Amino acid sequence: MSATADVPARTTPARRRSGSWDGLILLVLALLAWQGMHLYVGEAALASPVKTLTFLAGFLRGPVFWGHFAATLAAFGWALLIGAVGGIVIGLVLGERRFAGDVAEPILAGLYAIPKVTLYPMILLIFGLGMSAKVAFGVIHGIIPIILFTMGAVKTISPVLLRAARAMRLTRRQTALEVLVPAVLPEILTGLRIGFSLTFLGVLIGEMFASQRGLGFLIVNGINLHNVPMTTGMILVIVLFALAANGLLLWLHRRFGGPSATPEHA
Amino acid sequence: MTALVQRARMDDTLAEAVGPPPVVSLRAVTRVYPGVKPVEALAPTDLDLNPGEFFSVVGPSGCGKSTLLDVLSGLGRPTSGTVTFNGQAVDGVVPEGVGIVFQEDASFPWLTVRDNVAFGLKHSTVPADESQRRVDHALRFMGLADFAGAYPAQLSGGMRQRVCIARTLVTRPSLILLDEPFGALDQQTRLLMGDELLRLWRETGATILLITHALDEAAMLSDRVGVMSARPGRFIDMVETGWPRERDSSIVSDPRFGEITARLWSRLRAESLRAMGAQGPGGGR
């Protein structure tokens, strides 16, 4: 009977093998599409894969790239930390206080719909050029979906779990940490994944418009100097970084999202 | 001082005369849900549960059975009247020694079966090795030992309800409250779960209050069945089954089982019709 519990473990290796094949096929297709696009739009807009990779091989060995990469990473790290912690805390509070949540939800949804680039002049005037403006711009992009997902998760938690917590005489604090948080974790992780990519977007936009540091700046710099391999190369770096981070978050989701993150539950 | 001692002795002799004091006492308990149109869920209700008794509550849907469990357990406060558990007033907090199993699946989906069961003792003062032993015993007792590492999502509804029962059992409650725990299960599983409940009741010596809408379940499992009226709920009949303590689902073939079920139904029929009428054709909300 314990076979029930073993089933997922037994099917995983086969799935992983076919998964890596899928990945390889996808990679080849992406490279072909890139090359095709390059031939269609021409050298002036998009560098070929070979030329880009050759450029990157040299550029990544020099000192310039890593300084900019570190600047982006730092801005992104701070923005994500502030957005995630702030978003989860605000979301938990709004989810628990039903009235406040009902008031806040349409406001947040409205804010979410605003193209935040329009706010950038204001952000710049408040924070000035540089790190803090980039972080602030990342946060305002990422925090709202994290709040909304966390709030939604708390609102829809099965009431019987909270009743069970009371029946087991848990304190409010124990209930929050040991029942509420794990129950809402899968949805919070989904919110974090969306918040993550939006935060990254915010930081990069910040770098592109008003910064002398970071990958976003390198892209704009490449455009200004008409260094097409530089622009294409930086786009590639950003894409790879985003894919890797998304993969990590998906893995976290599967690992800590509990059984509800596995297909059996659905 | 001597007066107090004398008083205590008098109480002792009094207790001997009328048997042990009840585990739970409800006196003139009511519950009104406030609102634009306040809903009187529980009419003034008295109830005593005797130590080690298996007591079931049946009644038409929406009659306040679950409200009764709420105020009795401390999950909810009565609007008026008093509730005591082992002589202590119950007021909005579930007292130690009370275990509750709900109708809905209350197992924690992020924990394995073993961790779910162990959760019942997580904040107790029970030493680690003793708690380990109790968890092992509860898993074996509820037939969950082979599934200790599985997650609730991998189990059937009946198994998940067993997990919840095991989680309650590890705390060694002297009073177990079950709110239609088998309501969502199929008939065969329910009969078997009933047998397990009887086994559990005998081995733990706990007092059990079972809320159910299934008359046969109440008739087969209980020492005493309380029949509730349509809303506002109150007890309109108390049926003593007189079953021996050693019993199982095979008593359904005993002619007395039919008599008891018939009596429960005859008391309930009019009430159920009344409850249906109150909700109008097409049933409740």
Q: Can you describe this structure?
A:
Chain A: Belongs to the binding-protein-dependent transport system permease family. Chain A: It is found in: Cell membrane. Chain A: This is ABC transporter permease. The complex is a heterodimer of chains A (266) and B (285). In chain A, 34% of the residues are buried. Chain A has 10 helices and no strands. The longest helix of chain A has 39 residues, at 3-41. Mean pLDDT of chain A is 85; it is low at 1-11 and 261-266. Chain A has helices at residues 3-41, 49-59, 63-96, 98-113, 120-127, 131-155, 159-167, 172-209, 215-224, 228-256. Chain A has one domain (61-261): Orthogonal Bundle (MetI-like fold). Chain A is mainly alpha-helical. By secondary structure, chain B is α/β, with parallel strands linked by helices. Chain B has a domain at 16-97 and 173-278: Rossmann fold (3-Layer(aba) Sandwich). In chain B, α3 (113-119) runs parallel beside α5 (157-169). Chains A and B meet through α7 and α8 of A and β6 of B.
Poorly predicted runs of chain A: 1-11, 261-266
Helix content of chain B: 25-40%
Can you name the CATH architecture of the domain at 16-97 and 173-278 in chain B? 3-Layer(aba) Sandwich
Q: What percent of the residues of chain A sit in helical stretches (DSSP H or I)? A: over 70%
Give the strand tally of chain A.
0
Q: Using DSSP, what is the number of strands of chain B?
A: 10
Q: Based on helices, strands and strand pairing, what is the structural class of chain A?
A: mainly alpha
* Distance linking N and C termini of chain A: 22 Å
Here the CATH topology of chain A equals: MetI-like fold
Number of helices of chain A: 10
Rg of chain A, alpha carbons: 22 Å
Largest sheet of chain B: 6 strands, mixed
As residue ranges, the low-confidence spans of chain B are 280-285
State the CATH architecture of chain A: Orthogonal Bundle
Instruction: Report the sheet-strand fraction of chain B.
Output: 15-25%
CATH superfamily of chain A: MetI-like
Question: How many helices of chain B?
Answer: 8
Structural class of chain B: alpha/beta
Largest interface: A-B, 26 and 32 residues
